[in-house]
Specification:
CATH architecture of the largest domain in chain B: 3-Layer(aba) Sandwich
Number of strands of chain A: 0
Mean pLDDT of chain B: 90
Number of domains of chain B: 2
Number of helices of chain B: 20
Distance between the termini of chain A: 58 Å
Mean pLDDT of chain A: 91
Helix content of chain A: over 70%
Distance between the termini of chain B: 31 Å
Number of strands of chain B: 15
Strand content of chain B: 5-15%
Low-confidence stretches of chain B: 5-29
Structural class of chain B: alpha/beta
Shape of chain A: flat
Largest sheet of chain B: 6 strands, mixed
Largest interface: A-B, 35 and 43 residues
Oligomer: heterodimer
Low-confidence stretches of chain A: none
CATH topology of the largest domain in chain B: D-Maltodextrin-Binding Protein, domain 2
CATH class of the largest domain in chain B: Alpha Beta
CATH superfamily of chain A: MetI-like
Structural class of chain A: mainly alpha
Amino acid sequence: MTAAPAADRVRLRTRVLGAQPIGGLFALPYLVFVGVIFAYPLGFAVYIAFHDYFFTAPGVDVAKPFVGFDNFVSVLTDPQVLRSFRNTAVFLVINVPLTVVLALVLATALDSGVRWVSAYRIAFYVPYLTASVSLVGVWMLLFSSGGLVNSVLGPLAPSPSWLINSALAMPTIALYVTWKQLGFYILLYLAALQNVPRERHESAMTDGANAWERFVHVTVPGVRSVTTLVLILAIITGANLFTEPYLLTNGGGPDGASATPVLLIYQQGIQQQNPDTAAAIGMLLVIVVGLLSLVANRVNREA
Amino acid sequence: MRFIRPCALVTSGLLVASCGGGGSESGGDSEAAAATGAIEIWLSNNEQELAWGESVVEAWNADNPDQQVTAQEIPAGSSSEEAITAAITAGTAPCLVFNIATAAVSGWVRQGGLVDLSSFEDGTSYIEERGGEGAGAYAIDGSYYQLPWKSNPVMIMYNKTLFEEAGLDPEDPGMTTHEDFLAGARQIVESGASDSAIWPSPTNEFYQPWFDFYPLYLAETGGTTLVEEGAATFDSDEGRAVAEFWATVYEDGLAPKEASTDDAMSAGTTAMQLAGPWAIPSYAETVDVGFMPVPTSSGTEDVYTFADSKNVSMFTTCENQGTAWEFLKFATSTDSDGQLLELTGQMPLRTDLAGTYADYFEANPDYVAFAEQAERVGDVPSIPNSVEAWQAFRDGYSAAVIFGSTSIEDFLSQTSTEVDELAQG
């Protein structure tokens, strides 16, 4: 008669805490981390975006009324904000495909046993490990008006120069970020390539497939899940662009051609003390990035 | 000291916001105002200023064992203002900061972060006796949330060696009018003496106008600030003249549109910069520099310029405001100001500078021009949304003047309207 309630209690506990409750305990630090570092600030940002909000000293009690969608209307009718999203679109159109293609091709080359493979791996990975601030300094020397690139190009050098040319500033940043991040994505692809069975390549060779056909029909499908990951990570990284337009093109220049939403969040939220409109831009960015990531996931799955 | 009084009226909305909950805290009449004890202060990271600060703190601590002062550099950040804004929000601001930019003050008042120094019994009288008539320019509706401390009057600094190579007289370049300045600048570039004649930073930060457009605008107008009586002033003949002057500088390739990757004066890649007296010790070892007033269209004498002042504010988180106020007076006394002048070359914002420190100027003739210029300066107006207004100005200026993608007429009229709205609060 007493066994049934005891079994019910065990079932209930298993349903709530899982088969291994101790596992939940181990996961707790990370859950706390996610809650404190991500969930709470995100929730607070949503609150700020719907209020007439500004930061005050502790103990200063000032009305911060609910304003509905006013902050969103304000930023969506601001030409600078709209332009920053267009600039980001330009960046993503260049950076994301280039990242996927170059990372996959270079990883495949490294995986095929080229000579000095370790040297290449280090060469690709060092930019990723190096602080962007120091690399930006190098790129400024390379791409400034009197820089090395223009000296090599001579009369073919663009005028105005790369970083102060409205049409070239964002593509230059996209190239820079592609180069800087490539090492990380190559590593992801290298790991994925290890998992593509050699038998598939051998079978394709037996069927008479050449190297290009094996790449398209064996390698690419074999690393599809990593391609989805690379797409999503590249989209998220690109949408959060800040350091490069802040430093490489001197605060989103020339004339706002490389301004990004995060740069405007910094200007409005930190410098101008308007965290409410800054939070509204942030919310829009979260929505756009979420939608793009969903699309990337869906497209790659169906392909 | 003649000092142009900018519009110091801040809309009632801003004051309501700032005083709403901080009424008792923002004044010096609370318990904290009389409290004494240990305090903390922040100083800029300028090497000479740090040396001055440490020396003043040491002298104070020797005489006040029960009211010790601890000094440290302003924490690292993209700018001092951002670090201070964050500290106000977090409640970790020190008692005093000796490096306050006027443009940030209205925002901090709105945050409820600053103590109204006028609420100390001798607050207003001390500030006005020390700073004279010009001190009023720093008040917000009659209340001093900052003590005007020191200025760095902006002048044209030039490399005498490069001027000589270009065939210009390094002792009297004769570049007082816009026309003569442009002619001299062309001579520098065409002679090959330097790649560029002048190199103001073309970057997009809100404060960059203070080192290109604004000094020349103050000079052109005889000291009219960017906003007066709640309205933008620069959509005018004078504003147009200065904007066209700089547009010509950029169009003719006399100034680069890119930021320098190193110190252009030291590297010799430019022959001129706009700078204050801080530049004298900074370049003492590397460049033989001269200074001349900023040009005007007609070459007027006794021109005005931008003060580039840095001031001192007390923060509401300060528990021992009595000590903080006494230390502030000690650090801005005649003796401490003299020490500041001697160690940093920066001009204390006090009356009769040249007379008070006659011995110093006799021994340091390089600084005499700055002392004279300090008599004719204008500062950033105390307006609501100050940083936003300057950012709007910079955006419009970059488009029209630096990159030429819009017309100067459109820049002046559109930005003026935008600044009008922001200045209304």
